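User: I'm new to structure prediction. If I give you an amino acid sequence, what do you actually give back? Let's try with this one:
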Amino acid sequence: MSDTAIEHYWDTLVTPYELWAEPTSARLASAALDLIAPSTGSSVLDVAAGTGALALAAAERGLHVRAIDSSSRMVDRLTERLGSLAGCSAEVMDATKLLYDDDEFDAAFSVLGVMYFGPATMTALTEMVRVVRPGGVIGVVHWARPVGGGPMFLPLARAVERLDDPEVGTLEIPVTTAYLEGPEVEEALRGAGCTDVQSETAVVDSPTPAPETFLAELDPFFGMFPQYRAAVARHPDRFRALVAEEVRLVERGENGHPVAHANIAYGRVSH
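Assistant: Good question. You get back a string of structure tokens that encode the predicted 3D arrangement of the chain. For your 271 residues, that looks like this:
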């Protein structure tokens, strides 16, 4: 997809994202805040904030949060949720061209955000470093396994494979980026100018819809895959049955587990 198409795609996901993706992001955001522990009253930037998993958790801890995202509808929803919290706001902004002054924040975070940016990842990280004061902290959270968007995609890929229809093909879940292992995420932060970089792995519950409603609830997420669209069109009943069966297997722990594995990496700004 083009950058414009991707932004429009995220505009369509506000409700399902908040319902089914944010619970996982929120648990990871809380783990990152626990680990890094910004002091009360610190100014924090949340980059690629989505519906606000980290921004809301940080605001609840007494931090002054500014959040940005490229999706205007995500920002509208986050603005609504932040309400009148003092020192907290959200706005549409390009993460690779932050409209903030140098050294403006005490910390900057991105939870399941900028590490998706491919070749632009380093630009976004460098921008985060630029706007954080010397001695401040940069923290990023990213998948520790190449599942392209969390455990919800695994039953889908397995069901597509079981159709064994050449006209549908195989659902190749895109690897999120080259930065998957903890040391690789650490190296990205070092490359952006951070020092004292370290990381920890977090494992959190990742709730998904019930088997019977799995496809209906997550259809907006899956619509980006042509193989999914072909499977629904060519084998609607069988495909839904196979997906439900795969979800039940995951729920029972027989073919994966409904948990998310992520790396939390963080480092100090030294410029």
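You can read the tokens as a compact description of the fold. Here is one thing that stands out. The first helix runs from residue 3 to 11.
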